[in-house]
Design a protein that fits this description.
Layout (H helix, E strand, L loop, with lengths): L1 H25 L4 H14 L15 H13 L3 H27 L2 H13 L1 H4 L8 H15 L8 H17 L7 H9 L5 H6 L2 H18 L1 H9 L1 H14 L9 H13 L3 H17 L6 H18 L13 H18 L3 H32 L17 H14 L5 E4 L11 E2 L9 H4 L4 H7 L4 H9 L5 E4 L10 H12 L2 E6 L2 E5 L5
Parallel strand pairs: 1-2, 1-3
Antiparallel strand pairs: 3-5, 4-5
Helix pairs in contact: 1-4, 1-5, 2-3, 4-5, 4-7, 4-17, 5-17, 5-18, 7-8, 8-11, 12-13, 14-15, 15-17, 15-18, 16-17
Length: 515
């Protein structure tokens, strides 16, 4: 069996890489990608998140992508390729982990198939988002911890803490999983020797090793925290508490709607419910006896609870849970099949699994068309006729149009930061992120200056003063006094800006020879 799964590893990885690379080329751009990528470019230009520009997530992603761009160059294709490789890495880890633990290559292939065909994965992982970067780190920590025994060296536990810290450095609310990992580290290993010799000293030693690894991995966040505690806490917590009138955790009716969409949606809901109900059923009936399944299930359960807490909630947050639910479900079903006594029972169970797998794959096909071709109900795409504006080719064309009009390094106002990512122009201060307007009115003038956010009035003052020669107005981004097109026309009428270039539905205005 060992030789078979190892021989299949390369084909499985290459098939997943081909699939995720295809998705990364054709999946419509998500609005958040614009500010993630511009932040990465600003880091490449020696700017610092929180201190030099507004950035609403934990700090690791822009540094990782800046390093990637240092090697490959700035482009949407390069960025999406890197995201696809992250998804491929996670798929390969899932396959190898399941094969090794279950000792069945078919179980590993099933897990890899479920991973790639899950709409929550192919819709949200081959993108420039925090999910495809944070989840492999968390999964690596899980893989290490699940193999702990009484003879595991301390440095092995430290590596698990290091990977967990990197996941938190990417998406801060992953810290909510820490109690699960601490419980597992302190848990008494199985075996006679462990029962006789395991005590408080061994537990404390393990915890110290894990804490050391976590502290090393948390260095990026710690550096930025000590550089400006106020800015760090506002960008990671304060903004999210202010962005909704319901606070950081609230609006439970909205959370209920998200849960209903996640579990009860026509296609995605079927996939997620099938995996989740399988895990819950195996756990309740006490058939989830394998450590690998139990830890994955508990991580998924706690992470799911953490994901639903932020306000507003979003279905895409649950994409981080899917790998752990898949692993728990495949392990549990594989072990259950091994307990069946008669050939008839085994035959019926296997056929049921095949039917369930086919239905799972089939349920992902409509979502595949939706996110890659039609744009129907894709977040950020206003309507299907708007979908062509959010392809990699179209947004790249806008950036090239900006370069034909702007001088290198010239400050340009763009209401969506993604248009400036690959251009030679620089974002006008305060326009690096398109989320600040949501909370600006709730902040004092001093704090707005410190956190680099602009109010609607401040934006209009900048436009009225013609402080930037070029303005880029697309069909996505915050509205300043009304829909983006209305703002554009108001600027044209009152301040002498003239429409000089149109790329799809994106408009570029120019006012004068120099700002």
């Amino acid at each position: 069996m060992t030789s078979i799964w190892k021989q299949l590893l390369i084909p499985v990885v290459f098939l997943q890489a081909g699939f995720f690379l295809f998705v990364s080329r054709h999946r419509f751009i998500d609005g958040d990608e614009g500010f993630y990528l511009l932040a990465s470019r600003l880091v490449l230009d020696h700017k610092t998140p929180y201190l030099d520009f507004f950035y609403t997530q934990a700090p690791l992603l822009p540094y990782v992508y800046a390093l990637w761009f240092k090697v490959t160059g700035l482009s949407w294709f390069s960025a999406r390729t890197f995201a696809a490789l992250q998804a491929t890495l996670l798929g390969g880890l899932i396959y190898a982990h399941v094969c090794r633990e279950a000792r069945k290559w078919l179980a590993g292939v099933t897990a890899a198939t479920l991973f790639a065909s899950s709409s929550l994965i192919f819709a949200w992982f081959p993108l420039v988002k925090t999910f495809p970067l944070a989840t492999p780190f968390l999964f690596l920590a899980y893989m290490i911890l699940v193999r702990l025994n009484e003879s595991s060296p301390g440095w092995w536990i430290a590596i698990a803490g290091f990977f967990f810290a990197l996941s938190v450095d990417t998406r801060s609310y992953v810290l909510g999983v820490a109690p699960v990992l601490i419980w597992w580290i302190l848990r008494k290993p199985r075996g006679l020797l462990a029962r006789e010799n395991w005590g408080a000293r061994q537990r404390l030693t393990r915890l110290l090793w894990a804490g050391l690894g976590f502290a090393i991995g948390a260095v990026p966040s710690l550096i930025l925290f000590f550089a400006s505690p106020g800015a760090f806490l506002f960008n990671n917590l304060g903004y999210h508490a202010l962005r909704s009138d319901s606070g950081l955790i609230g609006d439970w009716l909205d959370k209920l709607r998200v849960l209903m969409a996640t579990f009860g949606g026509r296609f995605t809901g079927f996939q997620f419910s099938l995996l989740s109900l399988t895990c819950v059923g195996m756990f309740v009936t006490r058939r989830m006896k394998r450590d690998s399944a139990l830890l994955a299930f508990v991580i998924a359960l706690v992470l799911g609870f953490v994901c639903i807490l932020p306000t507003p909630a979003s279905m895409q947050y649950f994409s981080m849970i899917v790998p752990f639910v898949i692993v728990a479900a495949v392990f549990s079903v594989s072990d259950y099949l091994a307990t069946l006594q008669t050939p008839h029972q085994l035959r019926v169970a296997r056929r049921s699994c095949v039917v369930a797998l086919i239905c799972f794959i089939a349920a992902g096909i409509p979502a595949f068309r939706q996110y890659l071709f039609t744009g129907y109900k894709v977040p950020g795409v206003l309507e299907p006729i708007d979908a062509p504006n959010w392809t990699l080719q179209q947004v790249t064309a806008v950036s090239k149009a900006i370069d034909t009009l702007a001088r290198p390094g010239e400050q340009v106002i763009s209401f969506w930061p993604g248009y400036l990512f690959t251009s030679q122009a620089a974002p006008y201060p305060g326009f690096e992120n398109d989320f600040g307007l949501n909370v600006a009115r709730k902040l004092s003038v001093e704090k707005r200056d410190t956190y680099h956010v602009l109010t609607a009035a401040a934006m209009m003052e900048i436009l009225d003063g013609r402080r930037a020669r070029l303005i880029v107005v697309g069909n996505q981004g915050p509205n300043v006094g009304g829909p983006a097109y209305d703002v554009a026309m108001d600027v044209v009428e009152r301040n002498g800006y003239k429409l000089v270039r149109r790329v799809g539905h994106t408009l570029i205005f120019e006012c004068c020879a120099a700002p």
